[in-house]
């Protein structure tokens, strides 16, 4: 536990300071992984069967791993396992998850609480249900800052406005005092991202974070995530049912189906030389029915 | 699978429009637009010169407003759109663009404040409830909803749902059942599903049942409101393939979606709705490869793609600033 | 629906209780061993071979009075429930379809009825129409009808805005068609729940009215009346109110059980519940209810 807290306090990068980003280039591959998922199997204790059959990936600062799969493929369970919030009767049957060098199997509930938000954080599909409708959104961000960073009331407020600014909300002061029903879906998702990065986590999991949004808003959120990755050296896990969403942002892609990882590799390789039939279907959908049908032609 | 989108023009009068002459941003008012759009101008009840059949759907200058007094809001303003026989038109619009209002106005579920709507040459704008019912009973226009979970009555078997539009028309039960079987086959479902309840079907199966229900009356126009948005890839492709087959039967489709990507592969023409106005109309290729209106440009650059250079973040940011979104 | 209710243990218990009560109502007066109105010298007697439940302050056989009074009590509560159903549910469904005017008027009427204190109102109406069980029950029925109005209206509203009703309308279905085919099935379960509940409430109302002497003239026995007269002689026979009170309680409980059972089995969740039980009973090995296939 001491190593963990040491790591957090000794962390050199100041987030949101431009020009201070961790280089996502070649050095990243040699850096020790922030998040290492090793052959994780998740089983349902009640039904007594495996839901996820072995998922492995490693994530280093400034890098992005994408997980693609339809609903029920086990991608969300994998994310929840990494956050230590598996639903009641699910458990990690085999394999290990290491966050910043610490095996999560050794963590107590208190350790998890300290870890979540400060080291690993997440945003999910329906932002409205993760925010309290009767509390101003700014106060909810400030609360995270006060609890996780130990800041005073005034400092926390200042920091919350800063965060709202960092997620490209145009009038952060105004948004600070608003309630959830006054904000659009895209704005709510940005508020949620601000909450998620409030305690300067090093890993951010975006689980279908853009699925319910309009396409232009989705692009904005994806741009924002890319931006945060570059500026703060955030490591991202992007989960989506849409291969195109994942391929925009990710260095490495895992394709999951019915709990199995059917394809894994660098994004470029997966897109150009898909080996599994399901990956080919995902690609074909875009090439035959999506914009790629027209855009690919232009390239040729 | 052809990669070439071949918009079959039933009139044959359409000349290929050189991209250079398309300078206007508002398709309706741009003089240098394609022949299709000129032909699409409302010509009243008399079909144009020669043997050109009237478009299946003619919408001209449609305006729909909601609410009263200070809270009055314009959902659609001056929307004109024509759909020819066997043509697939994609209507792209995001939340609040008025795309659902457009669909509901065409179906007579929302009353227009101004403008005309003609279905198969028949002006339906002044229709009262009774005349709408008579029109609907002919089964000319059908609708497919976004949410396959709620668009089928949970207490009716698949067979009951499928035969309903026919029974309403007065088709004998046996004949209706036979037709239901045929169309179940068309959407690649097996007959054993007929006795099941919607709750026992997967989302993809349910949406195919919904498509089959829209087809049993052999409509000339089907309006689809986000028909694939709630589905996963495999089911999405399957529905799109079924819809593609429909075109060769001469069924006109109005495919409404928030996502340019899901419409691109199937639409002959694309119309872009932005804040209640049609900002751009053109062939799918033109709209995607040479978008003119900044909003269309933003849509194209925002749509996630696999290959092809996605537009730079900076460009998107500039477009957003331009549009004040 | 009936079969699904009977599949539940609570449903079976409820049906058994209510059947028994109904039998009592039909056959009660015939089964009474003695004349319920005949007085005798043995007043306030304890239970014995002659008088199974003892006698009251005029020496009348309590058991006979209970049996004889059941018809009035049961019929009364049924009358309340059916009146309420008719006066409430039908306008409730129609309020969604018959336009703004009808909707506004019925809504205000329902509000007004809720605002009236019903016992007082019942007393007032009886003063006008004359004392009789039928008048009293009709008035009470009208007064509890807002429950049915609200329940039916809410259920209809939920259905009326669903896409499948719109799909039917787009296919040219008439209002009657939509109500028959889509609305009725959805509105029935909540109404059945309300009905079962109202039967229970009806018992309490009939009992309290007769307890007050409204609706039924004093010599004629009812469960509530018995309870009232027994209460006057608690010092002599402290256990006497027990039997009529128990009868009322069990019947109300039966109605509530039935209401619960109907609620449990109605709707999609209910169907899933019953199916699950059946599946578990029949094929314990087949865990996955999802249908396979459908694709060619």
From TrEMBL, chain A:
It holds the Pfam family ABC_tran. It comes from the Bacteria. GO terms for cellular component: plasma membrane. SMART domains: AAA. It is a peripheral membrane protein. Residues 1-30 are annotated as: Disordered. This is ABC transporter domain-containing protein.
From TrEMBL, chain B:
The keyword Protein biosynthesis does not apply. CDD domains: ABC_NikE_OppD_transporters. GO terms for biological process: peptide transport; transmembrane transport. Keywords: ATP-binding, Nucleotide-binding, Transport. Gene3D superfamilies: P-loop containing nucleotide triphosphate hydrolases. Residues 1-28 have a biased composition (Polar residues). GO terms for molecular function: ATP binding; ATP hydrolysis activity. SMART domains: AAA. Pfam families: ABC_tran (PF00005), oligo_HPY (PF08352). Residues 57-300 form the ABC transporter domain. Residues 1-57 are annotated as: Disordered. Belongs to the ABC transporter superfamily. This is ABC transporter domain-containing protein. It comes from Streptomyces fructofermentans. The lineage of its organism: Bacteria, Bacillati, Actinomycetota, Actinomycetes, Kitasatosporales.
UniProtKB/TrEMBL annotation, chain C:
Keywords: Cell membrane, Membrane, Transmembrane, Transmembrane helix, Transport. This is Peptide ABC transporter permease. Residues 277-296 are annotated as: Disordered. Residues 74-259 form the ABC transmembrane type-1 domain. GO terms for cellular component: plasma membrane. It is found in: Cell membrane. Gene3D superfamilies: MetI-like. It is a multi-pass membrane protein. PANTHER family: D,D-DIPEPTIDE TRANSPORT SYSTEM PERMEASE PROTEIN DDPC-RELATED (PTHR43386:SF1), OLIGOPEPTIDE TRANSPORT SYSTEM PERMEASE PROTEIN APPC (PTHR43386). Belongs to the binding-protein-dependent transport system permease family. GO terms for biological process: transmembrane transport. Its main location: membrane. PROSITE patterns: ABC_TM1. The chain crosses the membrane at residues 12-32, 74-97, 109-129, 191-214, 239-259.
């Amino acid at each position: 536990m001491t190593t963990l807290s040491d790591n957090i306090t000794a962390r050199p990068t100041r987030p949101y300071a431009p020009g201070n980003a961790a280089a996502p280039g070649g050095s990243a591959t040699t850096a020790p992984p922030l998040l290492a998922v090793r052959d994780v199997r998740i089983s349902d204790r009640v039904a007594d069967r495996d839901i996820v059959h072995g998922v492995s990936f490693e994530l280093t600062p400034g890098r992005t791993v994408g997980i693609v799969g339809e609903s029920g493929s086990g991608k969300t369970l994998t994310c929840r396992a990494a956050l230590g919030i598996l639903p009641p009767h699910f458990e990690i049957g085999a394999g290990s998850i290491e966050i910043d060098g610490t095996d999560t199997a050794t963590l107590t509930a208190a350790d998890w609480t300290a870890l979540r938000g400060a080291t690993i954080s997440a945003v999910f599909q329906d932002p409205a249900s993760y925010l309290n409708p009767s509390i101003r959104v700014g106060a909810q961000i400030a609360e995270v800052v006060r609890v996780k960073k130990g800041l005073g009331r005034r400092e926390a407020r200042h920091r919350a406005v800063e965060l709202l600014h960092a997620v490209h909300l145009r009038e952060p002061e105004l948004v600070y005092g608003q309630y959830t029903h006054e904000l659009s879906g895209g704005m709510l998702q940005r508020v949620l991202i601000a909450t998620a990065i409030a305690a300067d986590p090093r890993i951010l999991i975006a689980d279908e974070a853009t699925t319910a949004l309009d396409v232009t808003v989705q692009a904005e959120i994806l741009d924002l995530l890319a931006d945060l990755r570059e500026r703060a050296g955030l490591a991202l896990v992007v989960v989506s049912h849409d291969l195109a969403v994942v391929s925009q942002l990710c260095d490495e892609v895992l394709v999951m189906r019915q709990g199995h990882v059917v394809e894994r590799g660098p994004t470029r390789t997966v897109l150009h030389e898909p080996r599994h039939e399901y990956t080919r279907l995902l690609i074909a959908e875009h090439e035959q029915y999506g914009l790629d049908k027209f855009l690919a032609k232009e390239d040729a | 699978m052809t990669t070439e989108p071949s918009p079959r023009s039933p009139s044959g009068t359409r000349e290929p429009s050189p991209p250079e002459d398309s300078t206007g941003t508002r398709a309706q008012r741009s003089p240098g637009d394609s022949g299709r759009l000129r032909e699409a101008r409302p010509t009243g009840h008399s079909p144009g010169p020669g043997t050109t059949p009237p478009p299946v759907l003619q919408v001209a200058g449609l305006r729909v407003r909601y609410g009263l007094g200070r809270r009055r809001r314009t959902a659609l303003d001056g929307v004109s759109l024509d759909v020819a026989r066997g043509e697939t038109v994609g209507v792209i619009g995001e939340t609040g663009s008025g795309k659902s209002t457009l669909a509901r106005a065409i179906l007579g579920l929302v009353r227009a404040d101004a403008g005309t709507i003609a279905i198969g040459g028949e002006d339906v704008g002044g229709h009262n409830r009774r005349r709408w019912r008579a029109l609907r009973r002919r089964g000319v226009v059908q609708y497919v909803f976004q949410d396959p979970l709620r668009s089928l009555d949970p207490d009716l078997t698949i067979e009951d749902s499928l035969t309903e539009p026919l029974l309403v028309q007065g088709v004998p039960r046996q004949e209706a059942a036979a037709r239901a079987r045929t169309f179940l086959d068309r959407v690649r479902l097996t007959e054993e599903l007929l006795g099941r309840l919607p709750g026992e079907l997967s989302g993809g199966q349910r949406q195919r049942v919904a498509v089959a229900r829209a087809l049993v009356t052999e409509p000339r126009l089907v309006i689809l409101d986000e028909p694939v948005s709630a589905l996963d890839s495999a089911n999405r492709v399957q529905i799109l393939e079924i819809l593609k087959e429909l075109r060769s039967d001469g069924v006109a489709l109005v495919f409404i979606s928030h996502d340019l990507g899901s419409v691109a592969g199937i639409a002959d023409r694309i119309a872009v709705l932005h804040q209640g106005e049609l900002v751009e109309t053109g062939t799918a290729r033109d709209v995607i490869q040479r978008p003119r209106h900044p909003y269309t440009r933003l849509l194209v650059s925002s749509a996630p793609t696999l290959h092809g250079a996605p537009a730079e973040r900076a460009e998107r940011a500039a477009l957003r600033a331009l549009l004040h979104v | 629906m009936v079969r699904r209710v009977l599949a539940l243990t609570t449903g079976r218990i409820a049906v058994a209780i209510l059947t028994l009560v109904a039998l009592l109502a039909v056959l009660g007066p015939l089964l009474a061993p003695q004349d319920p109105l005949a007085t005798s010298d043995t007043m306030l007697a304890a239970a014995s071979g002659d008088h199974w439940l003892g006698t009251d302050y005029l020496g009348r056989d309590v058991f006979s009075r209970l049996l004889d009074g059941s018809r009035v009590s049961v019929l009364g509560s049924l009358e309340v429930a059916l009146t309420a159903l008719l006066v409430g549910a039908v306008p409730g469904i129609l309020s969604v379809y018959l336009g703004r005017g009808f909707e506004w008027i019925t809504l205000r009427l329902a509000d007004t009825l809720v605002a009236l204190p019903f016992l007082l109102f019942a007393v007032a109406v009886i003063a006008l129409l004359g004392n009789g069980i039928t008048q009293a029950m009709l008035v009470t029925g009208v007064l509890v009808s807002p429950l049915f109005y609200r329940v039916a209206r809410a259920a209809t509203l939920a259905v009326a805005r669903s896409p499948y009703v719109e799909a039917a309308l787009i296919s040219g279905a008439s209002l009657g068609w939509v109500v028959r085919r889509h609305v009725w099935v959805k509105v029935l379960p909540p109404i059945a729940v309300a009905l079962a509940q109202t039967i229970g409430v009806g018992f309490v109302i009939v009992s309290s009215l007769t307890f007050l002497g409204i609706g039924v003239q004093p010599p004629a026995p009812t469960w509530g009346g018995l309870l009232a007269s027994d209460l006057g002689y608690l010092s002599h026979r402290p256990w006497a109110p027990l039997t009529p009170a128990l009868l009322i309680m069990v019947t109300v409980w039966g109605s509530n059980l039935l209401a619960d059972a109907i609620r449990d089995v109605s709707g999609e969740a209910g169907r899933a519940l019953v199916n699950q039980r059946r599946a578990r009973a029949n094929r314990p090995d087949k865990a996955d209810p999802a249908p396979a296939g459908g694709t060619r």
